Each structure stands twice: as structure tokens, then as C-alpha cells.
Amino acid sequence: MYAKMRITSPNHAEANAITKIARSNNSSNGATMYVTASPCIECSKLIIQAGIKRVVYSEKYRLEDGIELLKRAGIEVVFISMDNEKLKMES
Ligand SMILES: [Zn+2]
């Protein structure tokens, strides 16, 4: 597949993760993706193409375009607040 998308920001962790999975023997098809901030529109397009079925995020981004796109594509989008005690890492 020839990717025409240009990633200009280093903050697109979703795109990096999907690219890494694509290069490995693993498949992102049907997978759940966990991200910190809600994915941007470009990353959301990649998430849809990768066949990811569920996205879990914990920080609301200013623009919700990406989230809206995911929902329209039938992907389950779950917001979990970082304030949730259950999510705190034990150190
Ligand atoms: Zn992005």
C-alpha cells in the first residue's frame, strides 16, 4: 500500500503505532487501540484503514473531528477519564 499521508507532527502516536503493526507480523484488524489524547482526523483515517474496531482515549482534544469520523465509520469510541482511580499506576 502506498501511503500518501504526510505526518508532520511528532505527536501522532497512533499513526506510528499503526505503521509499526503493519510492518510486523501482527494484525491491527479488529484490535482495540488505547491512546492518551483523542486522535486527530488524519490518525482517525489510518485507524479506520487499519481495521481497528475500538478506540479508548482519556484526554479530550480541542477538535473532536477525529472522534466523529471514527463513530461514523462504526468504530466504538470510549472515553475514560484519567482522574479515574482505577487507572492510576501503582509505583
Ligand atoms: Zn494524529
Structure description:
By secondary structure, the protein is of the alpha/beta class. The protein is 31% helix and 18% strand. The protein is built from 3 helices and 3 strands. Helix 2 runs parallel beside helix 3. The site of zinc ion has 7 residues, from helix 1 and helix 2.
Question: Which short descriptors sum up this protein?
Answer:
single chain; 91 residues; alpha/beta; three-stranded parallel beta sheet; 31% helix; globular; binds zinc ion
How do the strands and helices of this protein lay out in sequence?
Elements: H1 13-23, E1 32-37, H2 41-49, E2 54-59, H3 65-72, E3 76-79
Helix pairs in contact: 2-3
Residues 12, 14-15, 39-40, 42-43 line the site of zinc ion.
Question: Which range best describes the helical content: under 10%, 10-25%, 25-40%, 40-55%, 55-70% or over 70%?
Answer: 25-40%
Strand content: 15-25%
Mean pLDDT: 82
Estimated radius of gyration: 13 Å
- Overall 3D geometry? globular
Main sheet summary: 3 strands, parallel
Order of helices and strands: HEHEHE
Give the names of the bound compounds: zinc ion
How many helical elements? Answer: 3
Q: How many angstroms separate the termini? A: 42 Å
Poorly predicted regions are none
Secondary structure class reads alpha/beta
Sheet with most strands: strand arrangement = 1-2-3
Number of strands: 3
In short:
By secondary structure, the chain is an alpha/beta fold. 31% of the residues lie in helices and 18% in strands.
